[in-house]
Amino acid sequence: MLFKLSILYYLVEIKLTKWLYVHNIGFRRNWIIKKLIQHCSTSLFYKDFAQKKNDFTTFPIINKAIFMANFDAINAVNIKLEDALTVAIESEENRDFSPTIKGITVGLSSGTSGNRGVFLASEKERAYWVALVLDRVLGFPLKRRRIAFFLRANSNLYDSVKSKLLAFHFFDLLHSIDAHIERLNTLQPDILVAQPSMLLELANAIAANKLDIKPTKVISVAEVLTPEDKTYLSNVFKQTIHQVYQCTEGFLASSCEHGTLHFNEDFLIIEKKYIDQEQSRFHPIITDLRRRSQPIIRYELNDIIQEKTSCLCGSKWLAIEAIEGRSDDILIFRNIENQEVKIFPDFFRRAIILADDTISDYALIQTEPTHLMLYIKSQHEESFQRACEAIQDLLKKSNIFEVEISQTNHNHTFKGQKLRRIKNDVRKTH
Prior knowledge:
alpha/beta, GMP Synthetase, Chain A, domain 3, 2 domains, four-stranded mixed sheet
């Protein structure tokens, strides 16, 4: 009962904070920043920074490697990384995600960038997260709704969404697609939440008359949702496909009624580290004003964000044109003058899909500085050659030659892993 009352309290607070932010009334925000800095005096890692000055911009910019290396010192609930990993890994192996440490929920990220992350959430933080999900994603219904949620791993955090009005059903990504289809046909979910790769499989099953569901809302999570996949899914499910941008570091963004992702700037501070000359792509450096058990302050994400200058919804919150993936997946070559040339994943994506409109799936993996592996799924055999030519044309524009492209018959993504269509594997093989 207390937990549910906390959710209602935070739901009201979130709506108030949003109103204050939209109307440029900043006194509460400044107060929250001050309280966060004061709280950081309980974190061994941030203690000295918190005592020097009440200004979060004096805190160091960190990344995932620094965060995990200083896990014990950063968190303010005296939980050691070794203990957190033990609980999280055992939960994954046993598929039982209920255990906690000192009442703190422990979660494990999938480690897309090669390093797994561990997140902590107190009961208050879980309640706040549920309130956010209700406000930004699910809505607060007056009728009972069934939610089908596809995840690699469940968590107390996600189970917290359950209520008399919201029936939460966890679908384990490690189970077979046939089992999922059978269960979905029985469940008939009102809301479907899944990764784009799973949504595509379900959409294909609908097109093949194997799956008959009509969710009123479809939400894409965890993986990059490309424009072509978004269009296909919108046509199959006959609705706007919504998105949630969430990772180990927090609930970062959700989509408006037009399907555009907006950062949750009412409780996040977003600094931009531009990574291209045009200043259209950046790494977000996030400060979460609400996290206490595991402070997230000036944390640089490796994601490549394309900035959107405006949105039809009129929101002042920073809009996202696209999440291209991670900087780890920028493909790197040498041109004819032996200069290093970096090409963003989105350029390859567009080259491939525009090469042939019968291409339904693809993956491009750089295994060597001068070698690419290309997977193409298409009705026509010539689609592979057309995609190769488009890629070579793209490379030639940067004076890059003598790059070999080999054909592969699978996309190098295995069950339980995130789909990454453009991938740089050079670092992992050398």
